[in-house]
Specification:
Keywords: Signal
Largest sheet: 6 strands, mixed
Structural class: alpha+beta
Protein name: Putative secreted chitin-binding protein
Helix content: 10-25%
CATH architecture: Distorted Sandwich
Shape: globular
Pfam families: LPMO_10
CATH class: Mainly Beta
Number of helices: 2
Number of domains: 1
CATH superfamily: chitin-binding protein cbp21
Distance between the termini: 68 Å
CATH topology: Coagulation Factor XIII, Chain A, domain 1
Strand content: 25-35%
Number of strands: 9
Radius of gyration: 19 Å
Length: 197
């Protein structure tokens, strides 16, 4: 009887190890929580009907090279990942928004479940006059990031903050697309944060 129980326990242990090693994409990664990202709003229960992203806010990973490459227009907030398509749904422009001021100094914060060697962090913002009830596209965004933080291949700690200035000349509702470019894989991580100037 003991041999059967031991064999069953070993089998369960091997199955668990197999699951953990084959689903590595869910075990690492990160997201922004300041300004709060759509995936964090889903994970903390502020926004409902989010699908799988509520359990995996750190997993919004897609091809790097934005804006010339990367996810397709209309899928930017989900990193091109159809599993997280709820992040691309504009919800009639009603996502909760962080209050900010044009030109203010602001501390951007990331949370990582496991860090990758990092090229940089880039922050893009929507153009004046963009329509918050439509999916995000490249044409909706300013072409140049308003903040770039080089990281020279280093690995960030589990929480990482950097300070920059919010863009000037902005009023009303906008969307910030944060892009964490990984140095040692072909991917980047994407986070959309709704803000109100």
């Amino acid at each position: 009887m003991r041999k059967k129980i031991s064999a069953a326990l070993i089998g369960i242990g091997l199955a668990a190890v197999s699951v953990l090693t084959t689903s590595g994409s869910a075990s690492s990664h990160g997201y922004t929580d300041s300004p709060i990202s759509r995936q964090k709003l889903c994970a903390n229960g502020t926004v409902a009907n989010c699908g799988e992203i509520q359990w995996e806010p750190q997993s919004v990973e897609g091809p790097k090279g934005f804006p010339s490459g990367g996810p397709a227009d209309g899928t930017l907030c989900a990193g091109g990942n159809s599993r997280f398509a709820q992040l691309d749904d504009p919800r009639g422009g009603q996502w909760p928004a962080t209050k900010v001021s044009a030109g203010q100094s602001y501390t951007f914060n990331w949370r990582f479940t496991a860090a990758h060697a990092t090229t940089d962090f880039r922050y893009y913002i929507t153009k004046n006059g963009w329509n918050p009830s439509q999916k995000l596209t490249r044409a909706s965004l300013e072409t140049t990031p308003f903040l770039t933080v080089p990281y020279n291949g280093q690995r960030p700690p589990s929480t990482f903050s950097h300070t920059g200035k919010m863009p000037s000349g902005k009023t009303g509702r906008h969307l910030i697309l944060a892009v964490w470019t990984v140095a040692d894989t072909p991917n980047a991580f994407y986070a959309c944060s709704d803000v109100q100037f």
